[in-house]
Amino acid sequence: MHCPFCRHADSRVIDSRTSDDGLSIRRRRQCPQCGGRFSTIETASLNVIKRSGVTEPFSREKVMSGVRKACQGRPVTEGDLALLAQEVEEAVRQTGTSQIDTNEIGLAILEPLRTLDEIAYLRFASVYQAFDTLDDFEAAIGQLRADHAAAAAAATDEV
Ligand SMILES: [Zn+2]
């Protein structure tokens, strides 16, 4: 990689560190010609295949903007959205794939969004899973209620 200061064609790695989430490596480099130091971040490439067939790099920002609409008026902060986007990226990367389609991203969003805010989850699921009728909402709400009951029962068991 070229030195950003003098354009020298080579650089030396003086330190490598894996990020806390294990998804990237940060390298400190030094130019042997001018002595300038700079960092590079290395991540496995992850591409999204859009419905149109166009491929683009995975973007946490795009995940956040998709979910942000569903969270309007809900007590969800930008920090919550950033964390959710991070969880989605980790979940997708853990599958070991380098290419996913937008549908799979939608699926990966559903679970953490449900934990974050159930109303936003219902809104997002209704668009993403194309709920057609009230029955679809009823089924999704029924599932949430059943899970609440199961969680409550489990909590009672523990006492
Ligand atoms: Zn240089």
TrEMBL record:
Coiled-coil residue spans: none
Domain ATP-cone: residue ranges: 46-136
BP term (GO), one: negative regulation of DNA-templated transcription
Cofactor note: Binds 1 zinc ion.
ZnF bounds (unnamed): 3-34
Cofactor: Zn(2+)
Keywords of this entry: ATP-binding, DNA-binding, Metal-binding, Nucleotide-binding, Repressor, Transcription, Transcription regulation, Zinc, Zinc-finger
Function noted in UniProt: Negatively regulates transcription of bacterial ribonucleotide reductase nrd genes and operons by binding to NrdR-boxes.
HAMAP family assigned: NrdR
Protein name: Transcriptional repressor NrdR
